[in-house]
Amino acid sequence: MSDAVLEVRVGARIWFDGAAWTVCAVNASTVRLHSGVGHYRLASIDDLLGSGSTIEPVGAAEAEVLPSVMLASLTSKQRAAVEREAAVLTELLVADDVSMAERAEAAARTLGVSSRTVRRRLSRFKELGPAGLVDERLTRTTRRSVDPRWDAACLEVLKEYATQSTPSKQTVMRRATKAFLAAVPDGKPPSESVAYERLVELDHGRYTFDDAKQRRSVAKRPQGVLGQLRPTRPGEYILLDGYKLDVFAMEPVTMRWVNTELTVAMDLFDRSIKGIRLRPFAARSA
User: Tag placement on the chain: N or C end, fewer CB within 10 Å?
Assistant: First the structure.
């Protein structure tokens, strides 16, 4: 292990196991990591201290994305497209009796682009490897052409529809633009096509234009990352758990055999058992 300090806290950026991760939860011995594209994993603190390193923030002038980070940020479908193009371009680098022009034409037909585009992509492939084939627009987290204040107005409109009937995208865009111009009279709202794409991005995970029941359930979901309960005194948290036993009892009135369920109450602070109850069928109370 190196002498460098590894800062493990919620929100910290860490390079671990060949990819960039963001810390979203820290427990006693494990850390929950998020890749930024929907992938999560648990890693032990010992493993992070052994092979992890902190990703230092850089300024705008130095914000060059590492090739490995760029590839790791792609979805599986985007990664497959890059690998397919890389395989086609790799064949152009292999010596052959056929001229480069003819091979470039064949590669262009395979990829569905012009031969000029193939030569340009081949040049980037030689210089940067597979990362040179990645469209940088895919790795952007925001659209620079959209005013952030329009985004804020759109998010406010989306929040209003969390408990209302399902609106149309045109209605949301119209209300967002109206609120944006009311707050910023000299502002420039996005075009309809750009606003439509941005609306889809902002609505991701909100289900504003899908099932109302699912949308309301998501709106009631607790905000932030859920962690473990950490009791500070006895009696603060009591855990209840029930288990259906392979044990039968006879009901005294009807003389029928019934199944039983065991319910246990445990104090989370000292793990002591506070109550045990055996009931027929399902436990409704402790």
Answer: N
